TrEMBL record, chain A:
GO terms for cellular component: plasma membrane. The keyword Transmembrane applies. It holds the Pfam family BPD_transp_1. Residues 167-362 form the ABC transmembrane type-1 domain. Keywords: Membrane, Transmembrane, Transmembrane helix, Transport. Belongs to the binding-protein-dependent transport system permease family. It is a multi-pass membrane protein. The chain crosses the membrane at residues 35-58, 65-87, 99-117, 129-153, 173-193, 205-229, 235-258, 290-310, 316-336, 343-366. It is found in: Cell membrane. This is ABC transporter permease. GO terms for biological process: glycine betaine transport; transmembrane transport.
From TrEMBL, chain B:
It holds the Pfam family BPD_transp_1. GO terms for cellular component: plasma membrane. The keyword Transmembrane helix applies. GO terms for biological process: transmembrane transport. The lineage of its organism: Bacteria, Pseudomonadati, Pseudomonadota, Alphaproteobacteria, Hyphomicrobiales. This is ABC transporter permease. It is a multi-pass membrane protein. Residues 51-232 form the ABC transmembrane type-1 domain. InterPro entries: ABC_transp_perm/SBD (IPR051204), MetI-like (IPR000515), MetI-like_sf (IPR035906). Keywords: Membrane, Transmembrane, Transmembrane helix, Transport.
């Protein structure tokens, strides 16, 4: 009901696109019906009304899923069409941005889609399949050039090389720091499990570390890393420096350690005593037991840690831009500085998309790894 | 409650207050971190007032979020709201994947620079832990207890006010605790969109390459977060005891 109302309000009353004389000035709103060719605008408005109605009635969930997904795609296509129709020919400064109507429509339809998917109680395989379909459709829309006149895409095509370079930097930062955090964190977790007095102090230290605000931690690492670069031979040769990627990388590793260590400890604690006793009885050494009994049983808990850490890192890597560490934050902060909101979107939307994709894939993997009966317990 | 574990916190609290009242007397600690003629203590505004603004912002956002989240959680755990439970759960999970900087940046076009976007981001991030904890607490009230209440002739409303809600309080406070700690960090990031918080001190330090500023901002935020975390933990424990009694 509520969702249907959102969809209706968005199509009828709010501006679907905003036409601006250039990339910084405020623009003028145009509703969905105004912004496309007359026949197309009217037809789409009617179609969306029908969609809103269909959401109220009881239809098979599968049918609803198809309806919502098709209307999502149609909304995005309409945005592209509107931009082509609204842009004055030959004016390369004018910009067409998505308006509040578009965002609300997107929000309402996504909510409806999510609701339908949640009701289907999809298996992990099905969730991955849906993600794949969505990725192909959205990729196809981008590749087709229909969206090429949208302001955000224009910002992109003006700096597509920089975009992909920063994207690679962002992913490297997030994934690389996660890998290092696991290499360091899992042994610490095992040690905390074996040596009881170490446990409380290690977890407390990491907890306190998490309360240091991320911007500050990035900044504080400038000094020690700068000192290392200046005083330890060879350090600067492998890329350690006071500003740039190095402090960002170290900060992300530090933040990732808590979930990794905590989940390792929690996972090891949940290994049934019988399993360990049986292994000892079979004459396994401590090391053999760790590798062949405890790690496999701890795996779901570690996977849950991968999920937490990866989402956290993708978000936090945006802040790296403040200390010259690169990543998608470069566009966000540049955009904020020039008050060019399209540039902000160019940085923020891919970040949101990345964490969203990571959440879906890892959520499905976590479900795969927990066979019925053994529930993953994450900290 | 034993007295000894309180001592480190009291020391931290008195240090915090002493630093805010008279930052200059701590100058000798920060002097080695800066170049000879750079200021060692933040000089573009009062640290105490920024701290108050920071705390106030986190407080208001967390309060608003707590009211909304608890109300929502109560709604979806009632029989008439059960239909929205899967949706609420999924939305909450998805909300958690949105990066803070992205939320702040996306709120700017709608609300302009200043405190607005930060309040929105704080509110959104505070919603999730409180909602999740309240929902878990309400759905895990032992069946035997609510049945006993019903057997005593209590109405559904009475059972809720006198049995279910009191039993859930410690976990709700636990959720508020997580929200507040996240909030202190997020409010700091808010200064990138010109919110008046301690983040200003840190960003001033980053811009002028002044390590002392960064450290002051970081220590203040961390100390606040730790103290509030401890305070709420104490509240949580005493509620737990009260619940057991």
């Amino acid at each position: 009901m509520l969702m249907a109302a959102i969809v209706l309000a968005a199509t009828l009353f709010l501006p679907f696109v905003v036409v601006k004389p250039n990339r910084i000035l405020q623009g003028q709103g145009r509703s969905l019906a105004e912004s496309l060719a007359p026949w197309a605008g009217t037809a789409l408005t009617l179609a969306l009304l029908l969609v809103a109605l269909s959401l109220i009635f009881r239809l098979p969930t599968g049918v609803k899923l198809v309806i919502t997904m098709v209307s999502l795609a149609a909304t995005i296509l309409a945005l592209g069409g509107a931009a082509h129709a609204q842009l004055p020919p030959g004016n390369s400064y004018a910009r067409v941005s998505p308006g509040s109507g578009f965002w609300l429509l997107l929000f309402g339809l996504s909510l409806a889609t999510i609701d339908v998917i949640a009701r289907l109680k999809p298996s992990p395989q099905f969730r991955l399949l849906l993600l794949l379909i969505a990725a192909i459709v959205i990729g196809g829309i981008f590749a087709s050039g229909i969206l090429s006149e949208i302001s955000v895409i224009k910002e992109y095509s003006n700096r597509s090389d920089a975009f992909w370079a920063e994207m690679r930097r962002h992913v490297t930062l997030a994934l690389g720091s996660m890998c290092l955090a696991f290499v360091l964190g899992v042994p610490i977790g095992v040690l905390c499990n074996r040596v009881k007095w170490l446990r409380a102090s290690a977890l407390n230290t990491l907890n306190i570390l998490q309360t240091v605000p991320s911007i500050a931690l990035f900044g504080l690492l400038i000094l020690p890393l700068g000192w290392i670069a200046a005083n330890i031979p060879g350090a600067s040769a492998i890329g350690i420096a006071g500003i740039g990627v190095a402090p960002a990388f170290v900060a992300l590793v530090l933040y990732s350690l808590l979930p990794v260590v905590a989940n390792t400890v929690a996972g090891l604690e949940n290994v049934p005593r019988e399993a360990n006793d049986a292994a000892r009885g079979a004459g396994m050494t401590d090391m053999q037991r760790l590798v062949s009994i405890e790690f496999p049983l701890t795996f779901p808990s570690l996977l849950a840690a991968v999920r937490i850490v990866l989402i956290q890192n993708i978000g936090m890597a945006t802040i790296a831009a403040l200390i010259g560490g690169g990543g998608m934050g470069v566009f966000v902060f540049q955009g904020l500085g020039q008050s060019a909101m399209d540039l902000v979107l160019l940085g923020a939307l891919p970040t949101v998309a990345m964490s969203f994709i990571a959440a879906i894939i890892l959520g499905a993997l976590v479900d795969f790894s927990t066979s019925p009966g053994t529930e993953a317990r994450s900290a | 409650m034993k007295f000894w574990p309180l001592i480190p916190r009291l020391i931290l609290l008195s240090l915090l207050i002493a630093f805010l009242v008279s930052p200059e007397s701590f100058e000798f600690l920060f002097k080695p971190l800066v170049q000879a003629n750079a200021p060692a203590i933040y000089n573009q505004g009062s640290l105490a007032s920024l701290t108050l603004l920071h705390v106030r912002m986190v407080f208001f956002a967390t309060c608003a979020a707590t009211i909304v989240a608890v109300a929502l959680a109560i709604l979806v755990t009632r029989p008439f709201g059960a239909e929205f439970l899967p949706l609420a759960r999924t939305v909450v999970n998805i909300g958690q994947t949105f990066p803070p900087v992205a939320v702040l940046a996306l709120a700017v076009p709608a609300m302009g620079f200043g405190n607005g976007p930060t309040l929105v981001a704080l509110f959104l991030y505070a919603l999730l832990p409180v909602f999740e904890n309240t929902m878990t607490a309400l759905t895990t009230v032992p069946r035997a207890i609510s049945d006993a209440a019903k057997g005593n002739g209590m109405t559904a409303l009475q059972t809720f006010w006198q049995v279910e809600l009191p039993l859930s309080l410690p976990m709700i406070v636990g959720g508020i605790k997580i929200s507040t700690v996240i909030g202190f960090g997020t409010a700091t990031i808010g200064s990138t969109v010109a919110a008046k918080t301690l983040g200003e001190v840190i960003i001033a330090g980053l811009n002028s390459n002044n390590l002392a500023f960064i450290l002051q901002g970081a220590l203040l935020v961390a100390a606040l977060a730790i103290l509030v975390f401890d305070l709420l933990s104490m509240l949580e424990r005493s509620l737990m005891k009260w619940k057991a009694a």
